[in-house]
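Structure first, sequence second, as always.
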């Protein structure tokens, strides 16, 4: 599961993501079940054609669930997790009464779910992580919902949850059976980008990189040629922190430039899954990093610095290149780029570059690691599919649609008050898989033509952020790094058009050997890779690491991963 509690910086990014899932979709109707496929009765239609997957229950049916409480909700008077406008909307529109068996603080949710699984007493519907999903499968407590989903999921729902190519939906299928509903989210959000000081490039008469060789030359120049013109030998080319595989100020994007994909599973020519961290391409990347470190292009103390500490060097004008995620402009770059309301560092965004003539591709996960599971004992499992349909429609309908608004906003917000984050009350809340590439495609044109109507309703706040920045509000510099022409979101869209992704082919729960050995193997990997980079070990130690990885449990994990792969391929 990929819960990214990444320091304070994510708070800034979350402001960008917080309103997620109520993006508009053109051409949808505005009834209480708008976007759903209701069939008009006609004497010429067969019973199958008359079937309405969103027909309201009369009398109402009850669906039980459990909740992780979100402290950001601002409640309408008298409302709570057990009684609120969203639950009322489901009952009024669909005849589905939602009952919480319990609600706990988010920090206690996983523990409470674990207790429910151990006791064998689970609700009709609940959200679980990949480990809990596997435990429930092993205990034979889940319903195969494949036929129910096929019958009751609307065509819009089916299209919505497969905008990533179907990977997140496929992750719910075991031995051909659909054992959960996918918690969908932005599949492209973890792709990496190059951030480079444009002002330093201009100072040294350099062009942006098109190849890894170009990037190496820029790193050397940034280290040796005094790009800040202070007369001191105090700058580094490439930022690096102790968490080598971090998306921000880490090496994931660098490794991807060598077609190396650490910590994910790849399909080889024989159709088997192999672990990316032990492939020969990793050794090539480590060799280059070892050389760059020896040349003084990397902070000598990176091995003891976390993201925040390494970011201090950026703020101090000491680093000119970093790999990062789409929100890296918000954190950590903004703290150094903007001082006293003035932009003092000019950072550019670029696609990751390749070490050879093959295009560099960013590594991604197919699954979010979260699922909505349906108990084998559920009396009305089709009601859960109806709720899934309704929440997807409501989150994706125009923000001005009053029928959708009741699933998204509390009364205070509808009347123009504070953001109440009521959308999180939907028991099957999911995110839009292609939100950011869609914004990346549209935002530049909207800004160039000064036409905000080119954007979905809910993205108008982003248009406002960017126009505020262009009008001098430097507080939005980090958003400008996402939204400007050539920013991270436009580059993300470019990635999607050029198919610049490599996906982790393993999206199951921890195998028994993973649960036992992963911690040891990951620690060994980090230790060996760091030792090689800093010159404390020869490059050949990578070969020894590969053999150790296999003997210390990697072979067992590989066997289990491929056994799993046979059940889902």
């Amino acid at each position: 599961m990929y819960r990214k509690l990444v320091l304070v910086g994510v708070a800034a990014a979350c402001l960008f993501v917080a309103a997620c899932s109520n993006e508009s979709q053109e051409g949808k109707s505005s009834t209480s079940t708008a976007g759903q496929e209701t069939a008009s009765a006609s004497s010429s239609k067969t019973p199958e054609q008359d079937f309405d997957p969103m027909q309201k229950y009369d009398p109402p049916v009850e669906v039980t669930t459990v909740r992780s409480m979100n402290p950001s909700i601002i409640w309408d008077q008298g409302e709570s997790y057990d009684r609120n406008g969203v639950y009322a909307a489901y009952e009024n529109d669909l005849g589905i009464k939602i009952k919480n068996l319990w609600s706990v603080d988010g920090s206690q949710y996983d523990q409470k779910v674990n207790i429910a699984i151990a006791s064998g007493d689970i609700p009709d519907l609940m959200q679980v992580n990949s480990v809990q999903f596997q435990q429930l499968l092993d205990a034979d407590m889940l319903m195969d919902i494949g036929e129910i989903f096929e019958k009751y999921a609307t065509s819009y729902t089916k299209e919505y949850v497969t905008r990533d190519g179907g990977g997140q939906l496929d992750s719910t299928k075991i031995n051909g059976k659909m054992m959960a509903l996918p918690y969908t989210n932005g599949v492209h959000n973890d792709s990496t980008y190059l951030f480079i000081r444009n002002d330093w490039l201009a100072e040294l008469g350099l062009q942006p990189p098109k190849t890894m060789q170009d990037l190496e030359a820029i790193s050397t120049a940034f280290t040796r040629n005094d790009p800040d013109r202070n007369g001191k030998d105090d700058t580094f080319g490439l930022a690096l922190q102790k968490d080598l595989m971090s998306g921000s100020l880490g090496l994931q994007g660098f490794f991807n430039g060598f077609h190396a994909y650490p910590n994910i599973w790849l399909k080889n020519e024989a159709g088997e899954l192999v672990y990316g961290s032990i492939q020969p391409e990793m050794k090539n990347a480590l060799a280059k990093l070892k050389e760059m470190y020896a040349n003084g292009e990397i902070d000598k103390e990176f091995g003891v610095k976390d993201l925040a500490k390494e970011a201090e060097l950026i703020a101090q004008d000491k680093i000119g290149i970093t790999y990062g995620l789409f929100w890296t402009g918000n954190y950590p770059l903004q703290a150094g780029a903007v001082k006293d309301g003035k932009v003092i560092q000019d950072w550019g965004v670029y696609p990751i570059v390749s070490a050879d003539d093959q295009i560099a591709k960013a590594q991604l996960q197919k699954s979010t690691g979260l699922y909505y599971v349906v108990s084998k004992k559920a009396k009305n499992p089709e009601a859960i599919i109806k709720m899934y349909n309704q929440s997807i429609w409501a989150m994706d309908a125009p923000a001005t649609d009053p029928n959708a608004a009741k699933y998204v906003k509390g009364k205070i917000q509808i009347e123009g008050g504070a953001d109440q984050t009521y959308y999180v009350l939907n028991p099957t809340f999911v995110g839009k898989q292609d939100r950011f590439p869609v914004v990346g495609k549209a935002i530049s044109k909207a800004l160039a033509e000064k036409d905000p109507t080119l954007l979905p309703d809910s993205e108008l706040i982003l248009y406002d952020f960017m126009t505020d920045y262009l009008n001098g509000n430097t507080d939005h510099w980090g958003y400008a790094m996402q939204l400007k022409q050539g920013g991270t979101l436009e580059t993300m869209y470019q990635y999607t058009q050029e198919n610049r992704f490599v996906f982790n082919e393993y999206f199951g729960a921890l195998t028994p050997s993973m649960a036992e050995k992963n911690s040891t193997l990951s620690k060994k990997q980090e230790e060996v890779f760091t030792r090689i980079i800093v010159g404390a070990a020869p490059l050949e130690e990578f070969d020894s690491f590969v053999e150790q990885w296999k003997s210390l449990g990697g072979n067992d994990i590989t066997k289990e991963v491929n056994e799993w792969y046979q059940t889902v391929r």
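Margin note: Residues 1-44 have pLDDT under 50 and may be disordered.
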